[in-house]
Design a protein that fits this description.
This is Metal-sulfur cluster biosynthetic enzyme. The protein is α+β, with helices and mostly antiparallel strands. The chain has four helices and three strands; from the N terminus they run ααββαβα. Helix 3 links the parallel strand 2 and strand 3.
Length: 138
């Protein structure tokens, strides 16, 4: 029989793209998006039910998260059946992140200078071929 720890480890291989954009990659479990894991042993193997969340109501990652979670769990040996549902509460909070990830994110943020360099745009360099907007130095 599979354990909840094994299931959560597999779900943690599904990476949250916002964490990538923030420069500190995290999986679903580290992000606190795995709301529930239920396991039931059957003759064919372990039946897994998981409920996953997104960070906010407008997040478009619900369906991709569910698809990737299903694939990750279905690929595990000994898994007979997988059900993935999305949490309808939209009550995620940054405190839901694992303590390890919170610490790693904090260290990452401390290491940044706080300044994001922006290179000036030259006329015609935009994909549209239009000049930069007013107020943008060349």
């Amino acid at each position: 029989m599979k354990t909840e720890k094994e299931i959560r480890a597999a779900l943690n291989c599904v990476i949250d793209p916002c964490s990538v954009a923030a420069g500190c990659t995290a999986g679903l479990d580290d992000m606190g998006l795995v709301r529930q894991v239920s396991l039931r042993e059957t003759e064919a193997g372990t039946h897994v039910e998981v409920v996953i969340a997104v960070t906010e109501y407008g997040c478009l990652m619900g369906a991709p998260f569910a698809t990737e979670a299903y694939k990750a769990l279905s690929d595990m040996p000994g898994i007979a059946n997988v059900e993935v549902r999305l949490d309808s509460q939209f009550d995620w909070d940054p405190e839901d992140m694992s303590a390890d990830y919170q610490a790693r994110l904090h260290r990452h943020r401390q290491g940044r200078s706080g300044v994001i360099p922006i290179r000036p745009i030259s006329a015609g360099s935009c994909a549209s071929g239009h000049a930069p907007a007013r107020g943008v130095s060349r």
